[in-house]
Design a protein that fits this description.
Layout: E1 11-18, E2 21-28, H1 51-54, H2 59-62, H3 74-90
Antiparallel strand pairs: 1-2
Bound molecules: zinc ion.
Zinc ion (ZN) binds near residues 36, 38, 39, 73 and 76.
């Protein structure tokens, strides 16, 4: 029998084939996907998962290397950059 703490749906269940039959392994769930801080859309090109797994990825695989990468989506970052450039021009 599994320990009571594992019986909740906090953990996801992975069915693993073992010599004695199918066994259930309990693993951590992935965190939610990152969203754009401006429009709320799901960010593309951003790795999501368990932090220890993401740390193993190369830096370029984690977030886009552009400015506001991992915070704003490409459309919103473009708007932001244009806005900033216009602010600079107008003083
Ligand atoms: Zn956005």
């Amino acid at each position: 029998m599994t320990s009571p703490g594992l019986r909740s749906r906090t953990f996801r269940r992975v069915f693993v084939k073992a010599p004695g039959g199918v066994r259930i392994h309990y693993r951590k769930r992935k965190p939610q996907k990152l969203t754009c801080k401006s429009c709320g859309d799901v960010l593309k090109g951003v790795a999501h998962g368990i932090a220890s797994q993401i740390k193993k990825l190369s830096k370029s695989q984690r977030v886009p290397s552009r400015k506001y990468g991992g915070h704003l989506c490409s459309k919103c970052s473009r708007k932001e950059l244009v806005k900033r450039a216009e602010m600079m021009r107008n003083g």
